[in-house]
Write a structure and sequence with these properties.
Helix content is 74%, strand content 0%.
Length: 88
C-alpha cells in the first residue's frame, strides 16, 4: 500500500534543504526508471506487483510536483531571511 503524495510531502517538511535535494534526485531516478517500463515496455516482467508501474509513475510525478513546490517555498523563505539579515 502506498501513502498519498500529500502524506509524503508532509513527511518532507522537516527535512533540511539538502535532504530535499536528495529526495528530488531519488524521485527523478525512479521516474526515469518507470518511464522505461511504462513508455517503452522495458523490464515489464519484474512488475508483477500492485500497484502497477503506471500507478507508481503517476505517484512519483505527483510527489515530485509537491516536493518542487515545497522546495520553492523553502528557497523563498531562505531568500527572505537572508534579505532581513542583510538589512539589520
Amino acid at each position: 500500500m502506498m501513502i498519498s503524495p500529500e502524506v509524503y510531502i508532509e513527511g518532507c517538511k522537516e527535512y533540511p534543504y539538502e535532504q530535499l535535494l536528495e529526495e528530488r534526485g531519488e524521485l527523478m531516478a525512479e521516474i526515469m526508471r518507470l518511464e522505461d517500463v511504462v513508455l517503452w515496455g522495458e523490464d515489464c516482467d519484474s512488475f508483477m506487483v500492485s500497484p502497477g508501474p503506471d500507478v507508481q509513475y503517476i505517484w512519483c510525478l505527483e510527489c515530485l510536483a509537491g516536493l518542487s513546490n515545497l522546495m520553492a517555498e523553502r528557497m523563498a523563505s531562505m531568500r527572505d531571511q537572508d534579505e532581513e539579515d542583510f538589512v539589520e
